[in-house]
Amino acid sequence: MVNALSHVSLVVPNLESASERVRQLFGLSVGPVMVNAQQGVRMVYIELGNARLELMEPQPSNPALMRFLEKHPQGGLHHVSFEVDSVAQVCADLQAQGVSSISAPQALNVHGQPIAFIHPRDFLGALLELEEPHAKPVE
User: Fold this and answer.
1) How far apart, in whole angstroms, are the C-alpha atoms of residue 104 and residue 50?
2) Which of 8, 87, 106, 118 is the most exposed place for a label (fewest CB within 10 A)?
3) pLDDT tens sequence across 56-95
């Protein structure tokens, strides 16, 4: 079902400032800025060897993340992401156990691959993302 930890995601108020802070504190290389228009975020990945750190700056088109920043002006931990072979299959298996997804159908990550979010009430109080990193990107 779960193959690996994909990433831990932080919401930040300013992507460039947050990226620079990570470089300054830890000497880590920050990947290029990407935009996921469907999710309403600007983002970067920081490769950590066995997982990634994702920094997300919400855009006005994502009211949920804008509210998150209102509550946490300095930013904060948003979600944990697991790699799975099939988002659809894992969601179906979880739904059969009474777990609900809170994603729009056919949600895609910045690479065009399927993702789904599981509500914190169904995962130990934490928002969980499922992603299918080996899927062919949807055009």
Assistant:
1) 29
2) 106
3) 999 999 999 999 999 999 999 999 999 999 999 999 999 9
